[in-house]
Design brief:
- By secondary structure, the protein is α/β, with parallel strands linked by helices.
- It has eight helices and nine strands.
- It starts with 14 loop residues before the first strand and ends with a helix.
Length: about 230
């Protein structure tokens, strides 16, 4: 066991999907995995391992924000040997070309967080995803007719803030959407030499004001779940 995950060694696969919402992890396990087994419920952060098309895959919630995903991803990598980690979450569009329920594959993540500067104060370290996972996910999404965008996203420290105007200016510079976790996951991927990717479904638009319900975000964004699982297959 690690500090925040109660799984025994061998109970977590070497590839994992990481939704922020633990109930989305439960939904994925029950609807996509065969014979899912619960390996964690510490602090309500549900984690399951099962099989998908004959391959062993895990799924676990991470909570919201960079500090939370950093805890779980670090322990999954260092204590359980996970090698492929894909965030499957929601994001808000800040580009007029991105619409509700579109898929966004994060090639890189701009961030307002200082966690990386704490490690590298003399550098502006770029947070990028693993190209092999990105390339594979893009081809899978396009082959299945899923409206998909690839590019830079914003990983913000605060959900409620007074930076709306500057956030929208990032959209004018090609940043596609805003969420709260991917930058940390990409940084940990670089730090520990593992593969990471962020796949987000657009749940709302800061441009148009459109939004989806909490229940819909939890249970209906199946394109993202499918693309994530297919990408994890060897």
């Amino acid at each position: 066991m690690s500090i925040h995950i109660e799984a025994k060694q061998g109970e977590i696969a070497d590839k994992i999907l990481l939704p922020g919402d633990p109930l989305r992890a439960k939904f994925i396990a029950e609807n996509f995995l065969e014979n899912p087994v619960l390996f964690n419920q510490v602090r309500g952060m549900l984690g399951f391992t099962g099989t998908y098309k004959g391959e062993r895959i895990s799924v676990m919630g991470t909570g919201m924000g960079i500090p939370s995903i950093s805890i779980y991803a670090t322990e999954l990598i260092k204590d359980y040997g996970v090698k492929k980690l894909i965030r499957v979450g929601t994001a808000g569009a800040i580009s007029p070309n991105i619409h509700i329920r579109d898929l966004v594959l994060a090639q890189a993540a701009t961030t307002t967080s200082n966690i990386i500067k704490n490690d590298w104060p003399q550098y502006d370290f770029a947070q990028i995803s693993d190209f092999d996972l990105l390339h594979k996910a893009y081809n899978i999404a396009k082959d299945h007719g899923v409206t998909t965008h690839v590019g830079n996203i914003l990983s913000a420290d605060l959900f409620y803030n007074d930076m709306g105007e500057s956030t929208m200016k990032l959209g004018e510079m090609g940043v596609l959407a805003v969420e709260m976790e991917a930058a940390a996951l990409f940084y940990l991927g670089a730090k520990y030499n593992v593969q990471t990717l962020g796949i987000m479904t657009i749940s709302d638009s800061l441009v148009t004001g459109e939004q989806t319900s909490a229940e819909e975000r939890q249970t209906t964004f199946k394109d993202m779940m499918f693309v994530g699982l297919e990408t994890l297959l060897a």
